[in-house]
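Structure (tokenized):
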């Protein structure tokens, strides 16, 4: 199914699109570092894979708990103030890495990561739906995939820049340095957003408190929207858990050492991920998003199943195919889910941004399976997650 090509971004919204797209880079960078921290804490604190997975779990619990408050804040105060709040929360968590490193407490690090997670979910709750509204509705999924490509760029750069500071030949590391730099950077970005005006689009900038409960109730009754929430939850199980344990998988059989694995994750896996999003954005300007999603879901199920079967080189090819074909899933499911919601979009976004909790669930489950069996066997967890995305894509294609 093809469609006529529409302008990707409306001309009057070009500057807001560029500004908001910069936020995608910030949270991509921050989330990608978690995958390096996971392996680092295993080595420096002698903890199990399941225990180190609390790095991701704590961050995404912050997503789950802060998502609804983020949506309410955006509904009450608008997109710009929401972005500033998210950036300041992120900076607070980043600066806490200084006392964390001084104490050497794993639990203290988890508190800092929880605060960072709270900041990131505010940013994502604001930016994702905002980008879908900056042009024709038919190009919303393509536009969000393009913006999310900069999320991929942040994911690529983070492991390569941070890993040399964490996995050093001397055995010493400096976790506070990259986080302090990030804290300063996001404070400067917050000051920039304080001085610019983002037009409120896709509905009124505020919503009466008396209407909030009714809006949430209507969203829960919206079958199409709730299917999207479930699909995103299972997608996050797959995507985040694979990223979290990528280094463990490729170092388990001596294929790579931890430092090299971080570079391969950055350039190989996440580089492929970013390129696939750019390509996906171009494809979806011509082909229905639902159809593209269906094809990609089939390929991720196949790729993750190959890894689970432990077939040597074929399994490694399957691993990288997951990165290539999962790339368009989050922005595509998100754009399809919020399409046509109007004034309910901000609250709908907050419900969708609760779904990264799936990453915490998936990482914990993969860690438990890996500790009890093998790293290859643990990939049954993301394989199941992709199966649910495949089911959603099939239903969405029929609906389209």
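Design, position by position:
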């Amino acid at each position: 199914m093809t469609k006529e090509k529409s302008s990707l971004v409306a001309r009057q919204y070009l500057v807001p699109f560029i500004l908001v797209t910069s936020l995608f880079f910030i949270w991509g960078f921050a989330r990608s570092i978690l995958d390096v921290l996971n392996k680092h804490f295993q080595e420096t604190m002698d903890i199990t894979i399941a225990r180190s997975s609390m790095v991701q779990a704590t961050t995404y619990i912050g997503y789950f708990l802060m998502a609804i408050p983020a949506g309410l804040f955006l509904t009450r105060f608008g997109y710009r103030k929401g972005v500033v709040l998210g950036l300041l929360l992120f900076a607070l968590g980043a600066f806490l890495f200084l006392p964390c490193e001084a104490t050497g407490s794993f639990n203290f690090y988890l508190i800092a990561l929880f605060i960072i997670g709270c900041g990131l979910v505010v940013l994502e709750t604001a930016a994702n739906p905002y980008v879908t509204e900056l042009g024709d509705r038919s190009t919303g999924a393509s536009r969000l995939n393009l913006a999310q490509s900069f999320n991929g760029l942040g994911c690529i750069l983070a492991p390569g820049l941070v890993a040399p500071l964490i996995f050093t030949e001397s055995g010493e590391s400096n976790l506070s340095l990259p986080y302090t730099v990030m804290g300063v950077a996001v404070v400067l970005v917050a000051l920039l957003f304080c001085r610019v005006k983002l037009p409120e689009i896709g509905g009124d900038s505020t919503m009466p408190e008396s209407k909030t409960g009714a809006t949430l109730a209507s969203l829960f009754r919206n079958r199409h929207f709730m299917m999207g929430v479930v699909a995103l939850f299972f997608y996050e199980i797959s995507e985040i858990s694979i990223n979290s344990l990528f280094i463990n998988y490729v170092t388990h059989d001596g294929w790579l050492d931890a430092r090299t694995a971080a570079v391969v994750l950055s350039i190989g896996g996440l580089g492929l991920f970013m390129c696939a999003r750019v390509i996906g954005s171009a494809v979806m300007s011509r082909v229905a998003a639902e159809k593209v999603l269906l094809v990609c879901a089939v390929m991720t199920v196949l790729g993750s199943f190959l890894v689970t079967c432990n077939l040597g080189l074929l399994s490694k090819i399957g691993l990288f195919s997951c990165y290539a074909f999962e790339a368009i899933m989050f922005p595509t499911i998100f754009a399809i889910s919020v399409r046509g919601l109007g004034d309910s979009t901000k609250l709908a976004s907050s419900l969708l941004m609760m779904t990264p909790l799936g990453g915490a669930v998936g990482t914990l489950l993969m860690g438990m399976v890996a500790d009890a069996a093998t790293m290859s066997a643990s990939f049954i967890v993301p394989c199941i997650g992709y199966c649910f995305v495949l089911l959603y894509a099939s239903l969405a294609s029929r609906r389209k």
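Reviewer-requested clarification: Residues 214 and 324 are 40 Å apart (CA to CA). Residues 14-45 form the longest helix (32 residues).
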